[in-house]
Amino acid sequence: MKRLGFALSFALLTLGSAPAGAAPDASALYGKYCAACHGTDRLGGTGPALLPQNLGRLKPARATGVIADGRAATQMPAFADVLSAADIEALVAYVYTPPAVVPVWGRAEIAASRILNDDLIKVDKPVFEADPLNLFVVVETGDHHATILDGDRFEPIYRFPTRYALHGGPKFTPDGRYVFFMSRDGWVTKFDLYALDVVVEVRAGINARNIAISEDGRHIAVANYLPNTLVILSAEDLSLEKIFEVKDRWGKPSRVSAVYQARPRRSFVAALKDVPEIWEITTDPEAGPVFAGLVHSNEKGMKEALPSGSGLFALRRIEVPAPLDDFFFTPDYRNLIGSTRDGAKGSTAVVVNLNVGRDVARIDLPGLPHLGSGIAWTYKGRPVMATPHLKDGRVSVIAIDDWSVVKTIETKGPGFFMRSHENTRYAWTDVFFGPNRDLLHVIDKDTLEIVKTLQPAPGKTAAHVEFDRDGSHALVSIWETDGALVVYDAKTLKEVKRLPMSKPSGKYNVWNKITFSDGTSH
Ligand code: DHE
């Protein structure tokens, strides 16, 4: 498959900046220096989209530095010798200003963006010697690559470039053969883990959040901030199946925070950022027993039971007290816990029973719990979930039979991710923010005590753990451009191997993902 290089734009960098004293013409500067890579409409091209929504994670001061000095490990060049400081400031202001016309990304744009890899060699077994169900897919956001790692020998099998800025966990087909990646600019890539090559790519949105795959492996849902859509693609060839324009029952538009697969329900569940509704979309062609008959709110705001046989992609709206996002699902997918930021006391978690279609409990969890990273296990015969907090140094352990907080475990700082495995007695969590961000805590699931605190690389952020297929090893990321993957023996907690990697933001074990291990993200 061919991709245009950034080289094209650099050839155009021969013209000078604005004459001294004249106010820079930002639009002209953009057209001259940026458009070839980032698109005349700023929607992206070979370089990422330059719209305020897409730049939300980059502070303007940092953007000034990127234009002046370029960006390491990408093809973004330095412009300090070509543009004056005033030109650069004008460009920064320009890209942080919304375009005069709201960009459209609908059926035609999605279809036109689709790129099939005509060079893909069809194979019926893996082209490598390793257990295909114990592979790790490692996303390296330092230089925008992914590595396929043999999960028995912990040796890289293949490394390839990805789209710019992947986010969220890649999703696997139920047989573990194909994996789907999503970039924040809305690109979805289907990759064949047997052939080790891209199958097809499509751009499903301009600014996307995450993807989910349906229980039968036939559909991919894409959650978008821009435009306000939820897009359903065929997992076979990433052709477009349906676009939901996301609006509440009164017509108010909303961004989609995230979309999840609710496997036993045979549905997608979407978190909406701006309106107090959760959406459930059936992926069961018969709109089967779980979905049919459930209460939802219709377009007139009336509660009604969904008829049986509502059909593939039938939509059920569930009203909630406030917009909720960052969902943890109980292992049976009857309940979810979502965060709301409406409480005077800080964040509060709301439990929504998906069967009855309404909120059933509230849990006071100040300090912004990162519920999406929550994991579940059985503690003293009770089902519990545990979540790190993004703004507080603690892990909350919550009973999922009565929603009480069983224990608050003090940590050395706010955390981001949490992981375990059925075959290990430990749960691992990172300290992601603050001076102790190089630490990881290992918690005994039977005593809820921290039994060890690890420091794999002093001074460097250590984060995101994933176990191998049998739970005998835990893999940790060192989140630096010249970072590493550190393999620990999950019993002795001793390091067994260290592999250099470029900011390995996340790693995903095929087996744990396709079997929906309670210790990992889904
Ligand atoms: Fe993520 C997963 C939302 C910032 C790295 N992140 C997710 C998911 C959601 C989410 C909803 C679950 C999707 C899935 O896996 O299908 N993330 C958000 C945010 O709202 C937030 C706080 C702000 C934002 O800018 O979007 C945010 N996330 C970050 C980061 O800053 C991280 C650390 C670096 C990055 O690459 O952007 C980051 N998020 C991740 C990773 C996962 C993720 C590595 C997958 C976790 C997993 O193990 O499954």
Give an overview in words.
The chain has 522 residues and is mainly β. Among the domains are: 6-95, Cytochrome c-like domain (Cytochrome Bc1 Complex, Chain D, domain 2, Orthogonal Bundle); 107-127 and 155-275 and 277-319, C-terminal (heme d1) domain of cytochrome cd1-nitrite reductase (Methanol Dehydrogenase, Chain A), CATH 2.140.10. Helix content is 10%, strand content 37%. It contains six helices and 35 strands. It has a five-stranded antiparallel β-sheet. The chain has a four-stranded antiparallel β-sheet with strand order 4-3-2-35. Helix 2 packs across helix 4 (85-95). The chain is globular and about 75 Å long. Mean pLDDT is 91; it is low at 1-16. The protein binds heme D (DHE). The site of heme D has 14 residues, from strand 9 and strand 35. Heme D is lined by residues 57, 141, 167-169, 209-210, 258, 372, 416, 464, 505-506, 521.
Describe what is shown at a glance.
This protein is mostly beta strands and 522 residues long. 10% of the residues lie in helices and 37% in strands.
